[in-house]
Amino acid sequence: MIGVVLFGSFFVLLLLGVPVAFSLGVAACVSLVAMGGFGELSIVPNVFTASVASETLLAIPFFILAGVIMEYAGISRRLVDFAHACVGRRKHGLAIVVIIAAFFFSAISGSGPATVAAIGSILIPALIRQGYAARHATSLLASAGSMGIIVPPSVAFIIFAVVVSDYAGVSIVRLFVAGIVPGILLAAALVVASLLLPRTQPVAVAAGTAGGDGGNGGRTGGGHSGGGGHSGGDADAPAAGDGAEVAAAHGLAASFGKAIPGLLVPLIILGGIYGGIVTPTESAVVAAVYALLVGLFVYREISLRQLYRILVTASAQSAVVMLIVGAASVFAYVVTVNEIAENISEALLGLTGNTVLIVLMAIVVLLIVGAFIDAVSALYLFVPIIAPVLLEAGVDVTTIGVMMVVNLALGLVTPPVGINLFVAAGIAKVPLAEVVKGIRPFFAAGLVVLLLVAYVPALSNWLPDLLGF
Questions:
Q1: Which comes out higher in pLDDT, residue 362 or 229?
Q2: Given its phi and psi angles, is residue 132 left (phi above 0), alpha (psi -120 to 50 degrees) or beta?
Q3: How many of the other CB atoms lie within 10 Å of CB of 229?
Q4: Among 140, 213, 300, 342, which lies 20 to 30 A Cα-Cα from 94?
């Protein structure tokens, strides 16, 4: 009965448009009252504060801060320029630039929406000028941004490691390494899907306009100068003679030189973690300090006056995540005390003992859930339910973590609540319904990767095993 009250009130509130964090918290409080009266509510502050005070979760606000600083510092724009210099002159090169730039920034931010926001204002207008329909340009960017929670460092992997610790032990470092191959596979799948996009005649623009709207590549008010480098030019223009090849080589060298500080960020973060020099939490602090030094003294696009805006922005984003963590922890407490997860697990295992079908059921459930709630909330709610079932069926905990995160990455681009779709549509000023129409080929590509990750455990495990994590 408590399970019916808990999940029933949660989904009713969600359907009424109440934000996820408040839906979780209110549903948990209603269930606690149903369990033993208003006196049970005294447990709420204890559970809430204990959950957000975790040292492991301290990495989240610092990774968010690092991502915001890098966006203000112009790192994302220089990564776009470098990716364009590498492949932008090829056919469909600009679409590939989107995916490469998103992959690079994902290895910095650990967040899907942050990745979309960082490069969207540069690349969506450039794609449209290159003849791509607005819905395809926007949906491609939204889909590429979903790599933000798969490619390490990933906030989602940190959350999974914390929540699953009650059922099976897995280190954050192992999960980070395990996400590398699936992230590359998703990037490759998106590249294939992007090659199938129809195009009209590119719109001619003056060379070096930086993609026009790329000048707004930073956050509003950030005071960045410049734009997206070569993103607005004719990405498919053929090279003419040795002079063009030399110019292209010089352009590649120049863009690489400017992008080096940004390219060093994932090496510093992941190299420090994998080398045992720093913990994931410490690496987040190092990333934030490094990004600040780059913005202040290397690129010089951050002024001391902007630090207040940066800190406020990062604090607001962190507060949203931690509010969800706290509310979801209270929700999970009710689930645990009433043995709801155990009952659901037993019911699922009673339906079938076939591992293939059990994994498929988990995938379907998470695809549905991901369409309505964010990844952090979904992990807190469904890891206690799904992980024990899959562990009992013989699925490795690393595979479970990667499968769930890839699954929820698709939720970032699944209506009605796919947050990447909203962010990208807002940047492009395209109706959400139009963006949804363009998402189908990219969703199909992601679904193929999800099935490979779920049913081929070696894709998640071989690299961590090889490196000894």
A1: 362
A2: beta
A3: 30
A4: 300
The rounded distance, in Å, linking the Cα atoms of 389 and 346 is 8
In angstroms, the CA 106 to CA 76 distance is 10
The C-alpha atoms of residue 194 and residue 99 are separated, in whole angstroms, by 9
> Whose CA is closest to 403, among 421, 386, 384, 427?
386
194-206 in b/e form (b: 16+ CB < 10 A) is beebebeebeebe
> Which DSSP category does 368 fall into?
H
**CA–CA gap between residue 79 and residue 259 (Å, rounded):** 6
Between CA 210 and CA 241 the distance in angstroms is 24
pLDDT at 199: 64
The pLDDT of 207-223, averaged and rounded, is: 39
**Cα separation, 139 vs 143, whole angstroms:** 6
pLDDT band at 286 (very low <50, low <70, confident <90, very high): confident
Predicted confidence at residue 135, as pLDDT, reads: 84
| H or E element, residue 442 | helix 440-455
Which amino acid, 401?
G
Element (H, E) at 72: helix 59-73
Residue whose structure tokens are 């562990």: 391
Residue 340 has pLDDT above 60, yes or no: yes
Domain ranges of the chain: 54-302+338-467
Type of residue numbered 131:
G
Cα–Cα distances in Å, from 174 out to 108, 153, 321?
18, 11, 23
